[in-house]
Amino acid sequence: MDPIRNPYAPGAGQRPPELAGRDDELRTFDVVLERIARGRPERSIVLTGLRGVGKTVLLNALRSAAVRAKWGTGKLEARPDQRLRRPLSSALHQAVRELGHSQQGDVDQVLGVIKSFAQRDAGANAKLRDRWNPGIDAPAVTGRADSGDIEIDLVELLSDAGGLAADMGRGIAIFIDEMQDLDPEDVSALCAACHEISQASLPVIVVGAGLPHLPAVLSASKSYSERLFRYARIDRLPREAADRALQSPAQEEDAEFDTAALDAMYAATGGYPYFIQAYGKVAWDVAPGTPVTAADIDVAAPAAEAELAVGFFGSRYERATPGEREYLRAMADAASGIPDEERDDVESVPTAAVAKVLDRKPQSLSPARDALLKKGLIYSGERGRIAFTVPHFGKYLRSVS
Fold first, then answer.
1. Same domain for 92 and 220?
2. CA max distance for the chain
3. Of 233, 267, 288, which residue is a domain's last?
4. Which of 178, 199, 312, 381 could form a disulfide with 308 if both were Cys (CB 3.0 to 4.6 A apart)?
5. Distance between CA atoms of 335 and 342, rounded to whole angstroms?
6. DSSP 3-state of 355
7. 215 & 257 share domain
8. Between β-strands 385-388 and 378-382, what pairing exists: parallel, antiparallel or unpaired?
9. Residue 48's beta-bridge partner residues?
């Protein structure tokens, strides 16, 4: 079929043509926005899931919903090597600009607090040339959000921004991707700030997205985080939604998949949104015409798997050191030894089983395991067990070993 009309879009955070299976999350968020704008109590939101399930896509869709509700919004992506002040200042600066408050004096006051919060990153006695400028024309406000204690400063910052939004009967939403990569001190401060603004009924909400162990990261920071956030696990799509993700875009281009092709696609992709887009794109290109058949899927599978091996699996595998790769392969081998009826979707394995495969003491493998945890290649959902953050990663490793 015509490759120019190919509707499928495999890409990091790229919205698919049909955002299937996420209607409940979108409807719930609309209710949250309206409740907060009316001064009703609501919790901030945390989305968790494996890589490739569409967390970033959903995060962007929720942000679009907030924009349609005329909220001020800002987004940042957490990184292990960066503290929170600078990216949050940029995100909040954008959110305040989007609000469009009519009283410029009030706006300048809040912008000055944001600037003060950002510049404190350089230290209290830093020279002017060393202070980062977030592109705010208003003068920095001394004595507000600039104490150097991130928890105190963040509470003051979000309180002032929330007051500005409350004047307009709207709200501010800050979206944080890869939230598990925040510095522990910043996680603690963010939890404390969310707690304070919730108690004060200010119209500010944080929407975070991260890997499955993010709730444990938050809980380790503040014991009350379990009650502070509304947690939503984003998983692979059920069969009906996976079929819709394929069929709806095809039908928009006057094409379709037959039933056998849909069966084959679900078996190959497991319902993971990124895989659906990757296989769908290749299947469209190799199919001679409509409907796309199971035979077309068989032809497309090697090319789709080769592309995933390079862009999805391989790029992550290359980030690991030789010792870490050995640990990853041992995880895959340990999972293959678990009976099918006992193996879970993410192929989690006991750390002791990995040590047994390598014929090593578990303690000697701690450095490799900890490094892989920090790189976001594996996670620990429960004590003594680990799993890949990437679906089908074990299958990939067994195919290249």
1. yes
2. 69
3. 233
4. 312
5. 10
6. helix
7. no
8. antiparallel
9. 210, 233
Q: How many domains does the chain have?
A: 3
Question: Which stretches in the chain have pLDDT values below 50?
Answer: none
Neighbours of 61 (CB within 10 A): 16
The confidence score (pLDDT) of residue 127 equals: 58
Nearest to 92 by CA among 162, 186, 166, 190: 162
CB count within 10 Å of CB 174 equals: 26
52: region left, alpha or beta (phi > 0 left; psi from -120 to 50 alpha): left
CA separation for the pair 251, 292 (Å, rounded): 12
DSSP string, 117-157: HHHGGG-TT--GGGS---S--SPP-TTSS-SS-HHHHHHHH
Whether residues 292 and 338 fall in one domain: no
Domain check: are 171 and 297 in the same one? no
- Name the burial class of residue 264, with classes exposed (0-12), middle (13-18) and buried (19+) by CB atoms within 10 angstroms of its CB: buried
Residues 27 and 138 in one domain: yes
Range of the domain at 229: 23-233
Strands 229-233 and 349-350: unpaired
Whether 245 is covered by a domain: the verdict is no
Question: Would you state the structure tokens that stand for residue 126, as one six-digit string?
Answer: 């830093």
User: What count of other Cβ atoms lies within 10 Å of the Cβ of residue 280?
Assistant: 28
Q: Is the pTM of this model over 0.85?
A: yes
Assigned token pair, 324: 């870490």
The CATH number linked to 214 is 3.40.50
Q: Which amino acid is at 305?
A: E
Q: Is residue 240 part of a domain?
A: no
CA distance 97 to 303: 46
Parallel, antiparallel or unpaired: strands 204-210 and 172-177: parallel
Q: Could you report the per-residue pLDDT of 47-95, keeping only the tens digit for each?
A: 999 999 999 999 999 999 999 999 999 999 999 889 999 999 999 999 9
* DSSP bridge partners of 173: 73, 205
Q: Which of 65, 54, 46 has its CA nearest to residue 206?
A: 46
Q: Are 64 and 131 in a shared domain?
A: yes
Q: End-to-end CA distance of the chain, in Å?
A: 36
* 65 within domain boundaries: yes
CATH number of the domain to which 329 belongs:
1.10.10.10
